[in-house]
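Input record (one chain):
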Amino acid sequence: MIQSMKIGKSNVNAPKLVLGTFGMGGGTSWQDTTKDDQELIDLIRQAYDLGVWGLDTAPVYGTGRSESIVGQAVKGRREKYFISTKCSLNWRNTEGTFTYTRDGHSVYNNFSKASIIKDVEESLKRMETDYIDLMIIHRCPKAEEFGEVMEAMDELKKRQLIRATGLSNVGLSGHPVEALDTCLQYGELDLLQEGGSLLKRAYTEDMIQYCEKHQITYQAHSSLEKGILTGRILKEAVSWTGDNRSKYKWFQPENLPKVETLLKGLGKIAEKYNCSTAALSLAWLHNKSECVNLLVGARKLTHLKDSLQSLELTLSAEDMEAMNRLSDAANQ
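The corresponding structure, as predicted from the sequence alone:
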């Protein structure tokens, strides 16, 4: 099994690598995801056999589908898994702030105590479980909303419905450190789930440093930058016209030559460790700090190969610094 680590200051243990199930939700966000729930249930169970005993989901991933799949996959052996899900985004009514419409549902962001508690109760029903190991606030609240949000988290812990508290996407607030400081004024924060990668080196390192200081687990997602760090889609990305990824920074035509140079440099380092550039990029993250946890997505078992190999890699200080320089050059 994958090595475990304590989540923040809580008494909750999680694996160093957690399987994200956003892609399993399907819908228009992931048009290549199978419509066969059993296929995805089998994938989660096969991943467990490879040592992957942590799962991350959210109500809005497939508007309930992802959570339902997770619940079915762990049925009968719930106690063997670490499960995290999220709150504050829902489609049951029009209360809160309209966020987006997808697959026939209008999703609203609602940070009220009553709404968050309702989110959790609905997630428990969808997953057919009595408790959630980690409840993550899906979007970053405004400063004046944190008090009510953390009050809801405290009540949910007292009711033993959740065991630990997380916060995600503070970078979207425009003032991540201030948001985290405000959150800690109102309660305990055990985990920060935030986009982190070699190509976001400066921001990633700042967030890791903050988490180390406050004994918070840093869970990095989107660590392969939509797949660009795998090196396998660079050539096809040049000719993309309709793919949603084409709007992201590293898929812009002017940035592709920088990525190509980066990948060549990473390739030389990867040869020393007999691994892929994807595994090397993920290893860069968990070699940064003991507080780092990796959140990786997969819709096929083969997608986990690089992620699992990364956990076995101990990078030299010299190679870590070389990767830092490659990242800095790409960001110039």
